[in-house]
Design brief:
Layout lengths: L1 H27 L16 H10 L6 H13 L13 H36 L4 H15 L2 H15 L17 H38 L2 H8 L4 H29 L3 H6 L5 H10 L3 H29 L7
Helix pairs in contact: 1-12, 4-5, 4-7, 4-9, 5-7, 6-7, 7-9, 8-9, 9-12, 11-12
Length: 319
């Protein structure tokens, strides 16, 4: 297994190189520049020309790419044109916020989805199953940003139960109070994201459990007098987790990328909101770094899903 993982990692190297070239070219192909309108709407064109020249934006693309790669191997992703600070420091500060929100949303998603999917399948065709299926259809049809806007309006503005911006209170002291404030800020977006993210997990788990209930090994277990509780625990539920495990890696790394909708609606200072702002201000260094990180995370998500799948079912070995 370790040899396979090493081989998969080595295969990722040329994929990352190709991705970096494409990302760099697409970022440079964006119309506009990071300086026009950012320093002074009435700035002298000669001043803008000077800024573009000293930042190497007039150099050929291959020269700019080579300089970027050289700095990358030295741990330097450049400086942000918008925030005027190193990109590594900027992304690392935002990544902490995204990590908190991603972990909380992932845990809630599976805490909601696994019992719902199992309960719906166990009561197939009955009222609980119908209610859960209607819930999944409704949440699947409504766009995610609509759910976020409604949640912010009801729980943030009408009821005033939760904050609607930021990741931590400015008055929170370091320690337990800061942890509590951070949790308070991610509670509403985390719950809304988890309720929206349960749809696929519930539907997959429900279908797998229903299929497993009708399988031969379950009939054999029942004929031998095995209690229904043990049948669900040791036979049906474990085998039904295989498709869920296959998507676990993608869901984890997808959340780490930062939810564009969630962070934008809640003005949550994470990687998703940073990416949107960077596009608006043509902050090429931040855009390139973030998209490259997203691509690497997606590649790792594929490998992580295979590893999780092999752990859940030892009969499966990643190739």
């Amino acid at each position: 297994m370790w040899k396979t993982i090493l081989r998969r990692v080595l295969i990722m190297i040329p994929e990352i190189i190709i991705l970096s070239i494409l990302v760099f070219l697409l970022a440079k192909a964006m119309p506009g520049d990071p300086f026009t309108g950012s320093i002074n709407p009435k700035a002298d064109p000669a001043q803008l020309h000077h800024l573009m020249k000293i930042n190497g934006l007039y150099d050929p693309w291959y020269q700019q790419y080579w300089n970027w790669v050289v700095h990358l191997f030295h741990g330097n992703l450049g400086n942000s044109y918008q925030y005027q600070e190193p990109v590594t420091r900027l992304i690392s500060s935002r990544a902490v916020n995204t990590l908190w929100l991603a972990l909380f949303t992932t845990i809630l998603t599976y805490c909601f989805a696994l019992p719902m999917g199992l309960y719906a399948a166990k009561h197939e065709g009955k009222l609980p199953d119908s209610i859960i299926r209607v819930y999944t259809y409704v949440t699947y049809c409504i766009p995610f940003f609509v759910i976020l806007v409604i949640g912010v309006w009801i729980f943030g503005y009408v009821l005033g139960w939760f904050p609607t911006t930021g990741s931590i209170s400015s008055t929170a002291n370091p320690g337990i109070q800061s942890i509590g404030s951070r949790f308070y800020h991610i509670l509403l977006p985390g719950v809304l994201g988890a309720l929206f993210g349960t749809v696929n997990v519930v539907q997959y788990l429900r279908s797998e459990v229903i299929d497993a209930k009708r399988s031969d090994y379950v009939r054999t277990a029942r004929s031998k007098g095995v209690p229904e509780k043990d049948i669900y625990k040791h036979h049906i539920f474990r085998n039904s987790l295989l498709p869920i495990a296959a998507f676990a890696g993608y869901s984890i790394t997808g959340l780490l990328n930062g939810s564009l909708f969630t962070e934008t609606v809640f003005s949550y200072p994470g990687m998703g909101l940073l990416f949107i702002n960077s596009i608006s201000y043509r902050d090429y260094t931040v855009i390139t770094a973030l998209v490259l990180i997203y691509g690497i995370l997606n590649l790792l998500g594929t490998l992580l899903s295979d590893i999780i799948l092999s752990i859940v079912d030892p009969r499966i070995r990643i190739e």
